[in-house]
Write a structure and sequence with these properties.
The chain is about 40% helix and about 20% strand. A hairpin with a 2-residue loop joins strand 9 and strand 10. The protein has 9 helices and 13 strands. Bound molecules: 1,4-dihydronicotinamide adenine dinucleotide (NAI) and pyruvic acid. Pyruvic acid binds next to loops. 1,4-dihydronicotinamide adenine dinucleotide (NAI) binds next to helix 3. Its EC number is 1.1.1.27.
């Protein structure tokens, strides 16, 4: 619902369809938003349990599935949520064969890989929101420490959307100035200003919100809405989303993880080549290995 409200309130689309297995819930949620449509430019809001209602959707966003309980990592949700994804993708694609699929349910990197294989859609049309959210958190935490706007901070978090994510300090800039020229060792050995703490904040961010309210929704809602606007308005903006990373940035594993890519009307259209430091490269390969192990465990469970 946070994705829905972020899309509608920002006029990214004026037509949304919400599908959920829980009929009472989907009726309640869709009616509640419909009754505010006077303030949403008379947007069309459909709620249903039948996938036919979503026919010819330009973008399908999958958020269904179990969420982390206290103490659980995203990877702990794998077994349950793979089953749900493999149920949802075929009917979605049946009714919207030209769609672009964005996977949000966790662990989103692995679920996007499974969704791509299940959907048989072209690779550029299936990706996970991945570290687009971690990147937003990273920019926010740096900006807060420096007392500038988050939009004045450029930088990426890549790899797994989860505990092994990698901050790319070598690519951070503030107001167009390379951060490494301001703080030479930021995030690396000799980091006396403790900038590495910012990445710890990013990794802990979801756990802290979940400890407080039981789930996260507003930041991911806004993050996914921004991806939808890149597609619907063919913006060709650069964002870190999760796609097949094999043979990119030194990754040998057959895994989905986040790298900076260009997103437009056809989905992921090209990759931005990074110039990673030795440490960043090493951490990215470790993140790929973590995801690869989880992916292999799926094959063993079959
Ligand atoms: N990638 C990211 O950054 C984020 C991912 N998430 C993930 O999104 C997922 C959902 O989280 P919440 O919305 O908090 O959970 P929730 O429990 O509020 O919602 C999940 C919904 O999925 C529905 N559902 C379950 N199985 C279904 C099926 N087979 N078909 C149709 N609908 C089905 C349930 O009825 C429920 O309404 C979790 O896996 C969570 O970890 C949440 C926030 C951020
Ligand atoms: C739950 C989750 O993946 C997040 O908020 O980052």
């Amino acid at each position: 619902m946070a994705v829905v409200m972020s899309i509608l309130a920002q006029n990214i689309s004026n037509e949304v369809c919400i599908i959920d297995a829980n009929e009472k819930l989907v009726n309640g949620e869709s009616k509640d938003v419909q009754q505010g449509s006077l303030y949403l430019r008379d947007a069309v809001i459909i709620g249903n349990t039948d996938y036919k209602a979503s026919e010819d959707s330009a973008v399908c966003i999958i958020t269904a599935g179990e969420r982390q309980k206290k103490g659980q990592t995203r990877l702990d949700l794998l077994k349950t949520n793979v089953k749900i994804i493999t149920q949802i993708v075929p009917p979605l694609v049946k009714y919207s064969p030209e769609t672009i699929l964005i996977i949000v349910s966790n662990p989103c990197d692995i679920l996007a890989h499974v969704a791509w294989k299940t959907s048989q859609l072209p690779l550029e049309r299936v990706f996970a929101s991945g570290t687009h959210l971690d990147t937003a958190r990273f920019r926010y935490f740096i900006a807060k420490r420096l007392g500038v706007s988050a939009s004045s901070v450029q930088g990426y978090v890549i790899g797994e959307h989860g505990d092994s994510s990698v901050p790319v300090w070598s690519a951070v800039s503030v107001g167009g100035i390379r951060f490494r020229d301001l703080s030479k060792c930021a995030g690396a050995e000799g980091d006396t200003d403790q900038w590495h703490e910012v990445h710890n904040q990013v990794v802990k961010a979801a756990y802290e919100v979940i400890a407080g309210k039981g789930y996260t929704n507003w930041a991911i809602g806004l993050t996914v809405a921004s991806l939808v606007s890149m597609i619907l308005d063919n913006k060709n903006e650069v964002a870190t989303v999760s796609t097949l990373a094999r043979e990119r940035e030194g990754i040998e594993n057959d895994v989905f993880l986040s790298l900076p890519v260009v997103i437009g009307a056809n989905g992921v259209t090209s990759f931005i080549k990074l110039q990673l430091s030795g440490l960043e490269q090493e951490l990215l390969c470790k993140s790929a290995e973590t995801l690869n192990k989880a992916m292999q465990s799926l094959k063993e469970k079959k």
